[in-house]
Design a protein that fits this description.
Elements lengths: L8 H29 L2 H26 L2 E3 L6 H14 L5 E5 L6 E7 L2 E7 H6 L2 H17 L1 H28 L6 H44 L2 H17 L36 H15 L9
Helix pairs in contact: 1-2, 1-6, 1-7, 2-6, 3-5, 5-7, 5-8, 6-7, 7-9, 8-9
Organism: Streptomyces regalis
Cofactor: Zn(2+)
Protein name: Protease HtpX homolog
């Protein structure tokens, strides 16, 4: 079922191209491992099993990692009310609503499709945002679900993890599985490690490029659905500023999930690291919302109250 979130053909095209390139990359990766390790059953079964597990259980894994828990309407009536209104406005199924007991102000969506999705907000976000700002953030997250880029980024991100896990498993099977630790073993291990490093580097850059674009697409879709880009800009400015003041040590556990967050779990993004960032800069996002605000004739400037 098509939601009322504005479709984004460029996002759809980018997701298709990214998955196609990653698919080719990993077909080559698996083929190389089969040639090097001479055990296609091991490689294929482990790769397929892990990818399948990630696809089906990604929402549970993300919630567990971020200490999120599903909450009922009786516990968080205002939060459920906002999600209900947005889902009715967007004509889409209501996702599971969860809350993470973290002071870091943020939100994320995960799940394999709109019928099996989770939207999670942190208690730090609920404490800091006004109701209309919270609505803008949740509209952003729901647009990820509606555009199905949550499932794409979940699968794409996991492929990089698979490379590391397969290499580690293959190494220990060679080391402790009866194989001799001779020069041939060392050559095979070095070749596997080299292939894995190349695959990870390429997939890393492809995923980051897609992630940055999908955040801009979600900002656009949320602003157009609610008709209030200035409110989303206000939430962005507030959340980004507060995250920058949180000690780095408190953000480390969250950094692995940056691609899923409303804003990255880091402070200011150095210009030299833009290529490796999961999100566009705050300035890019505010500028885009400013243009949408002008098109809609909003009287409040983005970033304002």
């Amino acid at each position: 079922m098509q939601s009322r979130f504005k479709s984004d053909r460029r996002l759809t095209a980018r997701m298709g191209v990214t998955l196609f390139l990653l698919g080719l990359l990993y077909v080559g990766f698996v083929a190389a491992l089969i040639v090097l390790l001479k055990s296609w059953v091991l490689v294929v079964v482990v790769a397929a099993g892990l990818l399948g597990a990630q696809y089906w259980f990604s929402d549970r894994v993300a919630l567990f990692a971020m200490r999120g828990r599903v909450v009922e309407r009786e516990e968080y009536p205002e939060l459920h009310g906002v999600v209900d209104r947005l889902c009715a406005l967007a004509d889409m199924p209501k996702p599971v609503v969860a809350v993470s007991d973290m002071d870091m102000p943020n939100a994320f969506a995960t799940g394999r499709n709109p019928d099996h999705a989770v939207v999670c907000v942190t208690t730090g976000l609920l404490r800091r945002l006004e109701p209309d700002e919270l609505e803008g953030v949740l509209a952003h997250e729901l647009s990820h679900v509606a555009h199905k880029d949550v499932a794409v980024i979940t699968v794409a991100s996991f492929l990089g993890v698979i490379a590391g896990l397969i290499v580690r498993f293959a190494f220990y099977s060679q080391l402790f599985g009866g194989g001799r630790r001779d020069q041939n073993t060392a050559v095979v291990f070095a070749a596997v490690l080299g292939v894995s490093a190349a695959v990870y580097a390429i997939s890393f850059l492809l995923i980051r490029a897609l992630s940055r674009y999908r955040e801009l697409a979600a900002d656009r879709a949320a602003a157009l659905l609610t008709g209030r880009p200035s409110v989303l800009a206000s939430a962005l400015t507030k959340v980004s500023g507060d995250i920058a003041r949180i000690p780095t040590k408190d953000l480390r556990t969250a950094q692995a999930f940056n691609a899923f967050y409303f804003t990255p779990a880091l402070g200011r993004d150095p210009s030299v690291a833009r290529l490796f960032s999961t999100h566009p800069s705050l300035e890019q996002r505010i500028d885009q919302l400013g243009r949408i605000s002008a098109e809609l004739g909003e009287t409040t400037a983005p970033g304002g109250a």
